[in-house]
Amino acid sequence: MKSRRLGQSAIHVSDICMGTMTFGSQTEEAEAHRILDACFDAGIDFYDTAEGYPVPPDTKWVGRTEEIVGRWLKTKNRDAIILATKVSGPSHVWFKSPCRGGMTALDRHNITSAIEGSLKRLQTDYVDLYQTHWPDHDAPYDEVMEVLDELVRAGKVRILGCSNETSWGLMKSLAASEKLGAARYQTIQNNFSLNNRRFEDELKQVCRQEGVSLIPYSPLAGGVLSGKYQGGATPEGARFSRYLQMEGRQAAMGRRFVNDKSLAATERYLAIAAEAGLHPVTMATAWSKQHDFVASTIVGVSAFDQLAPILDARELVLGDDVMGALHKVSRDILYPMG
User: What is the value of pTM for the model shown?
Assistant: First the structure.
């Protein structure tokens, strides 16, 4: 397993990170621990969770994922694990968090409440990477970075990151940290896959110039790149099979990930994988890792039997012919997810 630095920090992590957002909803605890054990045994030392997990967000199970991860963490040497979690962003924007009565915000009260809750559920006295789950562009970045810096100084957090952030927001936060002499964001966790390459438009240049690492989530485009939704299929238990039957944000997300353009692009990616003798999941995971601005790719499974093709990408480097063929699809079918 290759190791890469998170931003400009002293922390190095495996270039695959295990995400946990289905643990406690789709995935029962025993299965989740089986998945985590297999990842650990395979050399993965980086694990990502959030106070608002599992998904879909619901007050009936919010916080359960951190509890599951926390109980697993007690079975391992804590120093051998790089653990990341997140504080929910504001609930007055595109997404309403189930945390704190749906009144979350990025301010001193919410950030300090969130970290204490996460530490308790995770059964640890610190997290290695603490991230804002989504931004509030109208709130003062100075206050956010000042409070986060206090958590670093108190030893509750080692380094900081953001998620679902824009180029403007990332630069604004970095400027605030520089002005305050405070800890800065070392990572950004945004959606990035063969079906969603918008990060390359602007944010990759910010990362390169400012020394911030992308830790991309959804490298399989929510499972679409596995091919399981091809031909109008709606597999039982699959996330977007459920979301497309729901309303509001979940239905909109389902249509964004599963649509005519994304399925057409995926059809061509599946053909490239077959010609190269690769499992499409293995190919998509390896592609995500093969960028200089990426430190570690966040993968996720809801069942143990989905893990093997992901782990097969650990040492895989795609050749120029495969990378070129994949890039041609991206040029021919621009922005499949909008």
Answer: 0.97
